[in-house]
């Protein structure tokens, strides 16, 4: 072990959940990411709300989430292979720039009044392509920029930052949309990516994951074969799909539920969901000490199923906000356990490819589920669609019998090779 790693390991402050923020690069990336996440939530709110002004069809509204998640079926596995083959920093610069262009283009067209429902879905799909290409590389750089003993804390901080943005972004987006329209929200999202681009541009990465002479198809097959031989990886993938298929119903149909309360009301409802997720992330370490990972996921799934059921039958705005607050806490409890397991289930040489399969089943399940529940809501109504989704969440718990969640100790990345510089 090199001296830098030894001094970090001996430092008692490294055990603190805030320890990763003492690393200049991680702190810079974390702050820039939170700003970008706020823009992303404004974009999500604006897309969903804009569709409700263009059409009254629950199916078309749910297709916004489908269009955002559908690219995962096309590029998740190649994205994971490319993140292991290429320099992740350069790949991230390309994907972040792609998302700037997509968000800005949609913003300009919306302000000009040229957006149709299908054009909105098209731009949402293009933005989703960039997000899916970005995600495996983004998650895989975490072990490079912090010591291995701080990995779990870094994952928790990333989750907290995402959910902080989930609380702020929709409320801010609702106010922006009510005052200036969805187009301005889209342009703000485009601008929010520049902080991440600046930090990545300044990062002088030393540790390289590039594979010389690698071929995309071959590296994809290597990743698939690794998963086929790793039962722990298979378990987290099965559990992720079982949850995401039914959990997607609430967020996909929320714009329809919120329509009577206006754009600000929709933003506040999503903000309450985000605040609940932030509160859930804060109490999650204490819950993990009292419950097993499987026990926590099971309890949280039951709570989320009850929230899904109630959301289709409660019309009172304040009660809906309180219910969504509870739902946000349950949501993050499930996803945090799945995410920590996913980020620690594979060695570094195949980590991005394993993560791409996790992203494929998480986002793919959300996309497929959104289309299914939107179609059911078109035929049977939103309350019944959410009833069936809550039953699906309960039924998905059966997979626990054969697939337990297990996290492996991450392969250490030499701290001196992480390329950490002041940004």
Key phrases:
single chain, about 425 residues, mainly alpha, disordered C terminus
In the CATH classification, which architecture applies?
Up-down Bundle
The residue ranges in which pLDDT falls below 50 over 5 or more consecutive positions are 1-10, 408-423
Shape: globular
What number is the mean pLDDT? 81
- Straight-line N-to-C gap: 26 Å
CATH fold name: Growth Hormone, Chain: A
Q: Order of SSEs, N→C?
A: HHHHHHHHHHHHHHHH
Q: Please give the number of β-strands.
A: 0
Number of helices: 16
The CATH first-level class comes to Mainly Alpha
Radius of gyration: 21 Å
**Secondary-structure class:** mainly alpha
What number of domains?
Answer: 1
Helix percentage: over 70%
Strand content: under 5%
Relevant CATH superfamily: MFS general substrate transporter like domains
Q: What kind of sheet is the major sheet?
A: none
Q: How is this structure best described in words?
A:
With 423 residues, this protein is an all-alpha fold. 78% of the residues lie in helices and 0% in strands. The longest helix has 31 residues, at 24-54. It starts with a helix and ends in a 27-residue tail after the last helix.
Give a quick precis of the structure.
The chain is built from 16 helices and no strands.
């Amino acid at each position: 072990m090199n001296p830098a790693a030894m001094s970090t390991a001996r430092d008692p402050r490294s055990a603190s959940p805030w320890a990763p923020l003492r690393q200049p690069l991680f702190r810079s990336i974390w702050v820039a990411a939170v700003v970008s996440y706020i823009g992303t939530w404004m974009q999500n709110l604006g897309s969903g709300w804009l569709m409700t002004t263009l059409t009254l069809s629950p199916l078309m509204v749910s297709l916004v989430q489908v269009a955002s998640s559908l690219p995962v079926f096309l590029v998740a596995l190649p994205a994971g292979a490319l993140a292991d083959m290429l320099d992740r920093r350069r790949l991230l610069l390309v994907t972040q720039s792609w998302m700037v262009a997509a968000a800005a283009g949609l913003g300009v067209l919306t302000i000009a009044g040229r957006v149709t429902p299908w054009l909105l879905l098209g731009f949402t799909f293009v933005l989703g392509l960039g997000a899916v290409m970005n995600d495996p590389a983004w998650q895989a750089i975490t072990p490079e920029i912090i010591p291995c003993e701080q990995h779990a804390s870094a994952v928790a901080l990333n989750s907290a930052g995402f959910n902080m943005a989930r609380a702020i972004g929709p409320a801010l987006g609702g106010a922006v949309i009510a005052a200036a329209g969805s187009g301005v929200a889209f342009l703000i999202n485009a601008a929010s990516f520049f902080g991440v681009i600046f930090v990545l541009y300044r990062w002088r990465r030393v540790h390289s994951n590039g594979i010389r002479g690698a071929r995309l198809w071959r590296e994809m097959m290597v990743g698939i074969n690794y998963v086929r031989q790793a039962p722990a990886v298979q378990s987290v993938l099965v559990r992720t799909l079982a949850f995401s298929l039914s959990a997607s119903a609430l967020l996909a149909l929320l714009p329809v539920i919120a329509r009577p309360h206006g754009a600000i009301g929709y933003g506040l409802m999503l903000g309450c969901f985000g605040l609940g997720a932030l509160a859930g992330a804060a109490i999650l370490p204490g819950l993990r000490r009292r419950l097993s990972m499987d026990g926590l996921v099971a309890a949280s799934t039951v709570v989320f199923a009850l929230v899904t059921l109630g959301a289709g039958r409660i019309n009172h705005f304040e009660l809906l906000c309180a219910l969504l607050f509870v739902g946000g806490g349950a949501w993050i409890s499930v996803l945090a356990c799945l995410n920590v397991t996913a980020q620690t289930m594979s060695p570094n040489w195949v980590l991005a490819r394993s993560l791409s399969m996790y992203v494929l089943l998480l986002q793919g399940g959300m996309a497929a589920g959104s289309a299914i529940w939107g179609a059911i809501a078109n035929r049977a109504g939103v309350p019944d669609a959410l009833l069936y989704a809550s039953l699906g969440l309960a039924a998905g718990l059966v997979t626990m019998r054969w697939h337990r969640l297990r996290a492996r100790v991450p392969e250490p990345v030499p701290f001196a090779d992480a390329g950490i510089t002041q940004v």
